[in-house]
Amino acid sequence: MEFGVNHSARRLNTLAEALGCRSYLEIGVETGATLLEVAVEQRTGVDPCFAFDWQSHQGKDGLQLHPCSSDLFFAELQASTHYDLIFLDGLHTFEQTYRDIIHAFRHSHPGTVILIDDTVPSDVFSACRDQQECLSLRSHYANSNDIQWHGDTYKVVPLLALFHCDLCLRTLADGGNPQTLLWRPTVPLEEDGIRSMQAMWAVQNLAAADYIWFLSNRSLYNPVSEAEGLHELISSIARQPAAADVH
């Protein structure tokens, strides 16, 4: 697999091409670096504060841009609207990310794939819930200008492992910033009692979860190579007809 600069767009385009996706939703667009590179017929982007001239792109090349929070977007979205491919890269807190996941699945179909960004903190500093605290602490204690920040998004994975054990979950661990894939398997998953117990323990300790907690529970993230994770998803998913009613 050829690794490029925009790992998100590369992964999403691989999935879109292999699965015949016609509709795409991106939560957390910022500069549009990913959204504008995704090759899907109908693309919807949501961000309360776009960091590019989004008005000049509105309505062109299948683009629909919504300058609002994800909560407001989903609250006003018609129940019949479904997407084939969804990328979640919004607010870096686990509770908002979890809400976005729940909303995304309400607007999905059996063949929908969800890619979640920032589920793996790069160091103890990037796991800080506050971005400025992350940068300040890293600069002071590590003498580093690294700007990587993932927040506590990593806490969403044990919630998925415990309460959504019917979903396949794989974390792409190489080729760029790690991201987690979610999809519905064609064949129901066999129950893993040990994994369920680990997830339950992890959720019970979620309030005190820190970077050391993350390292101790990394097996819940099912880390795989990008090539392996994408191949497994594409090979296993039962593709349903693409969503026809997208706004």
Number of separate structural domains? 1
CA gyration radius, whole angstroms: 18 Å
What is the CATH class designation? Alpha Beta
Taken from the alpha-carbon principal axes, the silhouette is: globular
CATH superfamily: Vaccinia Virus protein VP39
Q: In the CATH classification, which architecture applies?
A: 3-Layer(aba) Sandwich
Enumerate how many helices there are, as a single number. 8
Number of strands: 8
Mean pLDDT, to the nearest integer, reads 90
User: Helix and strand string, N-terminal first?
Assistant: HEEEHEHEHHEEHHEH
Reported for the largest beta sheet, the result is:
8 strands, mixed
* Share of helix, binned: 25-40%
Order of adjacent strands in the largest pleated sheet:
3-2-1-4-5-7-6-8
Strand content: 5-15%
Tell me the distance between the termini. Answer: 33 Å
Query: What structural category arises from helix and sheet content?
Result: alpha/beta
Return the CATH topology: Rossmann fold
Low-confidence runs: none
Fold and architecture overview:
- The protein has 8 helices and 8 strands.
- With 247 residues, the protein is an alpha/beta fold.
- It has a single domain, classed as Vaccinia Virus protein VP39 (Rossmann fold).
- The longest helix has 13 residues.
- The two termini are 33 Å apart.
